Amino acid sequence: MAEPLIDAVRSGDARVADALLRAGADPDAADEHGTPVLCLAVDAFDLPMMETLLGACARPDRVDGLGRTPLHRAIELGSYDITNLLINRGAHMWITDAEGRNALALAQYWHETDLVAELYRRSGRQGPVDRRAVSSDSGNCEQLSLGSLTIRTGHAAILTNLEKSYGIATSFDELLSRALAEPDIDHAIWWQTTATLAERGSAAWDAAAALRNRPDPMERYFGAEILRLTNLFDESDDAPFDGPLVDLFLPWVASEPDPRVTRPLTAGLADAQDPRRDEPLTALTRHIDSKVRQTALSGLHRPIGRGDHQALSAAVERTADKNPMVRRQACRALASAPAHHQDATDSLVTCLTDPDEDVRVEAAVRLALRDDPRGDEILDSLRPIDEGSPYHWLLYDVSQHRHG
Prior knowledge:
Layout (H helix, E strand, L loop, with lengths): L1 H10 L2 H9 L14 H7 L3 H9 L14 H7 L3 H9 L14 H9 L3 H9 L6 E5 L6 E6 L2 E4 L2 H11 L6 H9 L7 H11 L3 H9 L6 H17 L8 H14 L3 H13 L6 H7 L5 H9 L2 H5 L3 H10 L5 H11 L7 H9 L6 H13 L6 H7 L9 H12 L1
Antiparallel strand pairs: 1-2, 2-3
């Protein structure tokens, strides 16, 4: 069954590949060039196929005809999410390639390489390089293609993650420099650098806090993101960063002119336990930036649950927001209101006729969880539903509430 599996991997048909593997196909099958199917999936940037093959016990370290492991190939191609998957599934980082480079050395090499020049050199072609944005759960990146060659710009994020795995504490300034080199704050490098520093706790706190006065909004964003993640990641019973974060973020968010920087400031306040954050979060539900409004609403569950009139009114107001994601978040927030608060229930009922399906379903679910059946017709129209549906877990919550 090697050939059918190879064909399925090359065509990206994970369902067929899964069926073949369940029927006994070898997950370590290789093509005519000695390239294992796992490497073929890496070359196609096919994360679902990778998960299918690894789930069938494909060996993550089986080398191709040139002595490269799937991890080597993923690093070379700049595939941050696939690199992470392979490491999480047990790929060894110390295996060397034909040039004697382990995963870290290979990532360092590619981080320092001019990718466009490398595409021209390898392809021997002229003409413009095709560029397109690629999004994934791990963050954005850019994909560069020339002829049959394709590479992604995840090398800085890969290197940063590997340095941590190798026990290397890269300096604050170097990680800041890597992030600032990428103008898209949703690029994987921004998450990887800020999360890496946040995991150091108090060691990075002062340096991050000092960035709040920088004229460059991207530096301020970097600092705010580290501070909010530091508090979020901390699992200490006494929450040592919670109060200091609110002390910093309250005056900062009140004067911050850039909506991009306001986003992590709002997220940090939404995650904080300090009650001083309730009033500014209520005000931020009216911010010009929709992501700020959405995040602010996510932090109002506790005051709404206590029956706070201002917080409840803000959530009711946002059910008429022009952005459907904000309206959906308003439904979630209103669900926290005490049962006797009729304004919350009435607003959820109104949302059952929202023009956006996600908002209608959210309102119906929240009503069902409040033992109000007026959204049941919407929920019934979704059944039967499988695990691939975006509504699967919402309906599961309703089922558990009613029958669990």
